[in-house]
Design a protein that fits this description.
It catalyses: 2 a phenolic donor + H2O2 = 2 a phenolic radical donor + 2 H2O. By secondary structure, this protein is mainly α. The chain is built from 14 helices and four strands.
Length: 331
Amino acid sequence: MGKFMSRQLLVWSLSLSLCLLVSPSAAQLKQNFYANTCRDVESIVRNAVKAKFQQTFVTVPATIRLFFHDCFVQGCDASVIVASSGGNTAEKDHPDNLSLAGDGFDTVIKAKAAVDAVPSCKNKVSCADILALATRDVIALSGGPSYAVELGRLDGLSSTSASVNGKLPQPSFNLNQLNSLFAANGLTQTDMIALSAAHTVGFSHCSRFANRIYNFSPGNKVDPTINKTYVGQLKSMCPKKVDPNIAIDMDPNTPRQFDNMYYKNLQQGLGLFTSDQTLFTDTRSRPTVDAWATSSSAFQKAFVTAITKLGRVGVKTGGNGNIRRDCSAFN
């Protein structure tokens, strides 16, 4: 009897643990969530995003980063889009978010306007869901995988600069720091390595990596893990007294293509940030980098899994959120 009860308790404990891993709010997400309220939402958003993409490629990295920065702070609730007002300094004005390009915000705002221009859709689709869809669309437009997006998020009811503190990965992070931050959002090391490939598109300001080429350590001015030729190229683009507005491509080979070149670059010492190159220099993550450098399909499959999981983080439902009429302001 005692052994039977012990087994039953073990089964019950494992079942409870598995249940706790899936939040009730994330469970409400589903594909075709708007089938009965705004049937054509995906094509409406896709067309708006495509129009923005045709104006500037910056739309791609700007929208992806906006989604990542949103989900990591208070969950995927579009709180990063809210503008500061009154005495409140919003998320977007935190120092870690000041580098977010305006084209990402503009993409969501224009897509929201396109959705609301359809009478049956007006005020029916959240800014958070539009951001999730727009992220999928820019990835596909730049050569990455297309995937089904789970929908049903509400927009958050708060946005404060203080909420950003310690929530976003930094360029100087090592593998342990990256794993810890991603694990706090229910993401594994494999998910983290996959999502890091977002750095295959976009740009960075010199100040974010200057320490690696000028002042790495007292005995070594240059980070020894950087390709020596690449160091010379970076120094020519980013002299010590550089205009802070100068930005360079994070992927020196295919900066306008969402592909697995990111991992091939890491193999050659061409990771721009410490947080990039550590994925190859650390033997715990190197096998994954090597595998995805070889197989684009394996990378894409892992990326779709990871970004789907990211989209479930901190989802707002019920009284915890609403659908904003203006993505940049609370109702």
